[in-house]
Amino acid sequence: MRVIRSWKRLPFHWLIPLVFFCIGLLYIYAAPHFEASDNESHVGVIKWIVDTGELPVQTDEHDHLYGHEANQPPLYYLTMAPIYSAFDTTNFSEYFQRNPLVLYGHPKRLGNRNFIFYRQPYPPDLVGVSLALYVIRLLNLGMAVMTVAAVYQSARTIMPGHVGFAVLATSLVAFNPMFLFISTSITNDVMVTTLSALVVWQMLVMLRQGFDSRRSLFLAILIASATLAKISGLITLPVVGLAGIWTLFRTRDRRGFMILGTAVSVVFLAAAGWWFARNLSLYGELFGTGAMLDHFGRRSIALSRMLSEEFQGLRISFWGLFGKFSILTHDLYYHLTDALSLISVGGLLVFLVKNRKNSFLLAVVSLLGVFLAIGSVTLIWFSLQAPATYGRHLFPFITSISVFMTMGLITLRIPPPLVVIPMLLFSLASPFVYIMPQYDHPPTVAEIPESATEAFARWEDITLIGYEFPTPRRWSAGDEIPLTLYWQPRARSSEMQALFITLIDADGDALATIDSFPGWGTLPTTWWEPGSIYRDDYSLQIPKDVEGFSSAQLHIGWYDWADRIDILPVLETGEETAAFIVPIGALVAGDKERELGSGATPEGAVFGEALKLNRYRFRAGRILELEWQVLRELGGDWRAFAIVLDKPYQDGVDFEVIFQNDQSAPVPLDFLKVDETFITRHDFQLPAGYQERHGIYVGWYNETLGIRLEAPQPQNMLELRDFDFGADGA
Predict the structure, then answer these.
(1) What is residue 306's predicted lDDT score, i.e. its pLDDT?
(2) Which of 41, 54, 116, 398 has the fewest CB atoms inside 10 Å of its own CB, making it the most exposed?
(3) What Rg do the C-alpha atoms of the chain give, in angstroms?
(4) Does pLDDT of 542 surpass 60?
(5) Structurally, what CATH architecture does the domain formed by 444-589 represent?
């Protein structure tokens, strides 16, 4: 009990915002500047204002960095432009070098998360453009601290005597990894979220204490500012209006209501009216949203399809989907947040039943519910026209979400520390576990380790001196193959060169591929230091829908990015070769044909107690197809032979082999399991016009060992009799 009393006396009103700020610094450090959705466009608006002294205008030209953000209200950009202009940013074009292979919006694919190349991701460089952007991000974090503080004060206003309620509601915001990530990026979402949270706090105070002239003026300024920060801030206006009506009916303070209405109307028109007038003049509409959609494209999608296909992305990106919608956390985290959300909904219903006679709490729930409902409907409406189902778009309504969840959890008597402590620890770990590994450069080593296989292959000035691959094995659909390559450049490339690692089958067809710049997209060859040895780690994902029944190899190569022309490798002997190939085992996946079917002739002969000939078929007058079944595991380089003799075989009688075709199993026998079947196809090359009848002798041999698999037939070979060679069929 003493511990509980001490816990309740802690100064959470500043302690949680302080902890949030400290964790936010980790996110600023971990995530480079342009690695959140649309950050480059927000920077583009700031840069345009600094360079031209004007606001951007939405046009059909798509080559401007500000892109589709030109229609955004200007408050955030006008606030940050003086900060940006205070630094020497003349090196912007040198700093801002896009990664053309970036994977945007593909969180289940690996690598190439970086939107641009960073010469020094860690520790961050603090000069020029980079320093200016870090200062802006620090200011964004400061605004987010105000959001956290406002949520705490809102919760204390709702339940003044319940410290645990305020702590839990605030922690659901402060220790949400996605909220931390967005709060430390460059986006107007941070400003509109802060202003909206402040509006909600002051609105709740008005509900409890009644009208106050200064508070009404403050609310008016906040509403106008939120609207000028982002269009979603306009939703605060009708919600505060409803709160004012409720307060009027409760207090009968007509004068206070008139002051609130007048203040909001006058300040809103004076501060934000010009923006709407500008939109009407430029685009013929109040918001400019239609012009943006006209210039950048609309989509047409059914509501049911959008909700079914994109709701998962919305909920995941509310709790933690970093980068350009491209870095997932652990699946367990999403399952836990789903469970937490569902439990909260159930608890909220119980809360409403228990407090059905508490008019203040019902008013709070109603107004916060209206706020969240309008925001959600607006998001759905816009998402039907453009992809916008991102969790950050719900952050302006995060006070409503956190308060509702807390009402449910507290009602079900779930102890706040049970939620707060895991969220705190996870938010602390996320920058190191999920974010930083995606952007750091590949490490250099003094020499390749003993565990690596030495190799030599040179693509112009790039040399592969070793690699670490898994021992050849059997691979399945959905597997990931870990790969480590050791590169040593002889000189720094003047042009960017890209790497490919392709999993191919025996016919050379691609099954899966990695297409990347070194370091999985983080370090272009133009930045390599000659003579250094780079350890380059990858994980090759085999698609879940791939089909294959074949040996598997890795094809490793380079190509010039500018002209997309492959660079041929040169071996240690100085010989130029078409491809550098390394065996990796076999792929067994999908429904590739492994049986001949009912039309084939049944057999049943067994070879070496290891392989059984189930059936066979002779077609097109020259192609013998044999279906084999594995009876026991058999390793080694065994090949199936099919030979045609000039006369039936007899012991002691000379004969001549007139046709022969030997084939390995499509999957090396080392990787096949007992009872699996496979087909070998033997295509005899016949002279033109050949027409004769022959038997065919089949069996298995190992050239290295110089033996055949034993069979109860002469010379361990089975005769398949009487085939019409040269005919159209058997």
Answers:
(1) 85
(2) 54
(3) 35
(4) yes
(5) Sandwich (2.60)
Q: Are 531 and 462 in contact (CB under 8 A)?
A: no
Report which DSSP code applies to 434. I
Alpha helices in 412-495 (DSSP H): 416-430
Ranges of each domain in the chain: 2-430, 444-589, 601-725
**Measured distance CA(138)–CA(474) in Å, rounded:** 50
Contact status, residue 27 vs residue 163, Cβ threshold 8 Å: no
Q: How much is the mean pLDDT over the chain?
A: 93
DSSP 401-412: HHHHHHHHHHHT
Q: Tell which residue, 84, 48, 219, 76, has the closest CA to residue 143.
A: 76
Strand partners, 53: none
Which residue bears the tokens 């990858």? 538
CATH code reported for the domain at 601-725: 2.60.40
Task: Report the alpha-carbon angle 210-212-213, nearest 5.
Answer: 150
CA distance 237 to 172: 25
Q: CB–CB of 399/150 below 8 Å? A: yes
C-alpha closest to that of 271 among 225, 316, 319: 225
Cα dist. 274→137, 268, 315, 620 in Å?
Answer: 28, 10, 36, 82
Per-residue model confidence as pLDDT tens digits over 674-724:
999 999 999 999 999 899 999 999 999 998 899 999 998 889 999 998 899
Q: Tell me which DSSP letter residue 615 carries.
A: E
Distance between alpha carbon 66 and the CA centroid of its chain, in Å?
Answer: 24
How far is the C-alpha of 135 from the C-alpha of 45, rounded, in Å? 17
Residue the block writes with tokens 């409803």 = 242
Residue 183, classed as helix, strand or coil, is: helix
344-366, pLDDT tens digit by residue?
Answer: 999 999 999 999 999 999 999 99
